[in-house]
Amino acid sequence: MKKTYYRRFLYRILLSALLLACFFTAGASAKEKKTDVKPESISLNHTSVTNYIGATFRLKATILPKKAASGARLIWRSSNEKVATVSEKGVVTLTGAGTARIAVKTKNGKKAVCIVKVQQYSISGRTVRVGSPEGVKTYYAYSQRDYGNGWYRHHGCVTTAVAIVGSAYGIKHTPREIHEGKETLPYTEKYAVKKMRCAYNDNAAISVRTASEILKNMGIRNRPVYSFDRAKALQEIREHLKQGKPVIIKANDNRYNGIRIANPHHAVVIVAVAPGDRAICISPGNPMYYTTITLNTLLYHHMTPASGNYKGAYMTELRTAGGYILVDGLKEDKDAVSADSK
Q: How far from each other are the two terminal CA atoms of the chain, in whole angstroms?
């Protein structure tokens, strides 16, 4: 009896083991069968994208049949990494102006493509958008003409240029607010002049130094350059613009090849450099956009270095005869002036 019992018990154990083995074998076969389904097609959520330098977005691939999607390995490629790069997860980063093809391919050769067109800048009415690694900057082209002939004649270009730059960094103070605001408000020229311990009357600032100080008080990092070697300045300004950062220049009234871009000591904001090394400028006078002047022409024929201190009708002992300001961006500072600070 005992032997019969043990035999039956042993048979039951062997049968259970056999059933478990069959179950796992069947499961593995089913899994194998599932992964053996090959992709028949692949598509992307975008077939074309137009955006600015610095923008990022994700391309999502759809594989059919759905059973093939779980086991499919995707290979992403960019035709021009100077224009756009793509990660293993389909995240596209726009790195330079131009056109690139972003392709995704399955192991069995199924392929989909997205055409990416990257802009450095665009102009629409008074809005100028410029792409950069930091993101897109949107400039509003204030005009000093908006505030009457007095502003146009009396050097309102500096505060207008400061307002144009501020608009791209989310600091929306108009030229009038900057000029007419109280000396207790950091974004005003009166506050800047008081800090510099200079004389001031009720006209407008005409100094590169003043513009630099106003930007600094707004919380915008910048570096003014008064005396400069033209070749080095040309390279410095070009590289700064390629990074998507603006430059304020003081232009003279020279005429070259029939073009005069400014009245004497006029402030102009350069926001980008276009193909052919052309300067994209916002001039507070009209506003006007100079897209045909190369940086070389601009620097050698329309700009002059400052030559010591200048004593004028509106400001005293300030360097005003020339120079430029390299604008770097907002300080990470609690005291920086926000767009809503008034």
A: 101
Strand, helix or coil at 40? coil
Least confident of 31-45, 52-66, 125-139: 31-45
Indicate if the pLDDT at residue 140 is higher than 60: yes
Q: For residue 314, what are its two tokens?
A: 């509106």
Q: How confident is the model at residue 77 (pLDDT cuts 50, 70, 90)?
A: very high
Query: Which residue in this structure is represented by tokens 């005409």?
Result: 206
Q: How far apart are CA 315 and CA 191, in angstroms?
A: 14
Q: How far apart are CA 131 and CA 243, in angstroms?
A: 9
Sign of torsion over alpha carbons 191, 321, 233, 163: positive
**306 against 192, higher pLDDT:** 192
In DSSP notation, 213-275 reads: HHHHHHTEEEEEE-S--HHHHHHHHHHHHHTT--EEEEE----BTTB---STTEEEEEEEEET
Distances (CA, A) of 306 to 27, 107, 200, 297: 82, 63, 20, 18
Q: Assess whether pLDDT exceeds 80 at residue 31.
A: no
18 contact partners, CB below 8 Å, separation of at least 6? none
